[in-house]
Structure formats: C-alpha cells, structure tokens
Amino acid sequence: MSYYVSFIDASDLWLVMPLLQCGSIVDIINMKYPTGVKNEVILASILKEVLKGLNYFHNEGRIHRDIKAGNVLMDN
What we know:
Helix content is 37%, strand content 18%. It contains two helices and four strands. It has helices at residues 25-32, 40-59, and strands spanning 5-9, 12-16, 23-24, 73-74. The strands form two sheets. It has a two-stranded antiparallel sheet. The protein has a two-stranded antiparallel ribbon with strand order 3-4.
C-alpha cells in the first residue's frame, strides 16, 4: 500500500492514503469479539502481519510513532 502525500500541520503528521474498507483492527475485534479475543492464533496472526509491516517501514528508513490496534487498518 502506498500513500499519496504526507505533511505536517503544527505538531501533527498526516498521511493521505486510499480508504481501507474494513476499518481498523480495533473496530473489527470489537464487532466480531465483543468480549475480547481468546484465541491466541488470531492474535498471533495479527501481530505477525503488523511486525512484518513495521519491519518493512524500518528497512525503508521510516518509523511509525503510534502503534496501536486503532491505527492498523484492514482492506478487503
């Protein structure tokens, strides 16, 4: 996934990117697992993909300053 442009407004960094249809991981988990995810395989699968994304960022000389489920976005 690429982004269109990034810019800084005051102290905020903004990335403009395509809309991802499924929302964030926190939205999906809250909808599908309202009492929380108990299955370690699901959590490990999500974490594995997030870590692969972070590894890619770091290899490209970029950082992410706010890692959380609300900032991990999913597409179809």
